[in-house]
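User: My collaborator sent over this chain with a note saying "see what the structure looks like." That's all I know about it. Can you take a look?
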Amino acid sequence: MRCPDPRSELFEVFDDHGHVCGSMPRDEVHRSGCWHRSADVWLFRDDGALLLQQRASDKDLFAGCWDYSVGEHLRPGESFLAGALRGLEEELGLASIVLEPVGGLRRVVSEVPECDIRDRELARTFRGRIDEPVHPDGVEVDRVMWLQPEQLRQWMLQEPAAFTPWFMAAVKQLGLP
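Assistant: Without extra context I'll predict from the sequence alone. Here is the result:
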């Protein structure tokens, strides 16, 4: 699978009240700061360990940083749950995970002035349990790692730049893991 060209992948964009106001190419959305939708998934094993993914080294935003188990921009008209399930299959090869929503709709803003990026997402979080192997997509994901919550908390304190800003925001907003 190849990553979509950020100039041709279309995102639905929303006004400050969450109403659809059209669509724009991904790169324009990230430059202009238009609200768009995403879903993220946190996968846990029965022993409490959380699956993290390291973003591919050629990603346009925060390449090589550690992130949710799955993070997915939504396609036009796609529900948050459908986007989360699609992401599980595309990024980790998982097709039958039961997901439950965590918290409500979150507004996440990440700014990277040196890259002319102003990312504003309307995000919904899901969690699930797995006991099967994952098969990371080599284009989207460099590698995955299981961490116990205390290990993750220590790493985040020692090296916050190793993680995407939206991951750090979600941990703070939702109290996960």
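A starting point for your reply to your collaborator: Helices lie at 26-32, 80-92, 149-158, 165-174.
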